[in-house]
UniProtKB/TrEMBL annotation:
SUPFAM superfamilies: YceI-like (SSF101874). Residues 36-200 form the Lipid/polyisoprenoid-binding YceI-like domain. InterPro entries: Lipid/polyisoprenoid-bd_YceI, TTHA0802/YceI-like_sf. This is Polyisoprenoid-binding protein. It comes from the Bacteria. The lineage of its organism: Bacteria, Pseudomonadati, Pseudomonadota, Alphaproteobacteria, Acetobacterales.
Amino acid sequence: MKIFTGFAAAVGLAFAAPSLVDAQTVTDPAKVQAGHYAVEAGHTQVVFSVLHFGFTNFQGLFSSASGTLDLDSKAPNASKFSITIPVSSVQTTSDKLTEELKGAQWFDAAHYPSATFVSKQVRRVGHDDAIITGDLTLHGVTKPETLKVHFVGAGVNPLDKKYTIGFDASGTIKRSDFGVKMYVPYVSDEVQLHVAGAFEKQD
């Protein structure tokens, strides 16, 4: 009886929950739907990494991003992208460090609550890769920066039924360029960035 009950429950769950097998994604950028997209905050992450006193490549994370993508799949170079990140969303594995990073000696979230990146040029460099140059504003300073972007996939999300597109992006910045100089060079000036970006179609 217990075996039958467990089997029946599993069958019921399978029919009640959306099947991930039904997720149909495309990996050819030319087949992606063009249009206006918005950042899907729940699955967008901005990870940063610094060399900590020469011992470890220590990572932190920003979340709760917002932004837009205007995608022209037939002419990718005409696409536009922007993202805004609340600085107070920073997280690390240390509660003490997380609070310090929000403070005046680091990101100073009280005075500079957001970091933004706005694209100026999109240049396709391969079948599913592009170089995006734009303006990064952090800690009240705006500097030109470059991101290497890789298209991951697109399709209808089986959970919320929204057409979604995803990218990975990476880049390197010098935090001292933005006035964040605490502990340089013991904590590296160079910061490695990795963005897992999800966008939902709006029209």
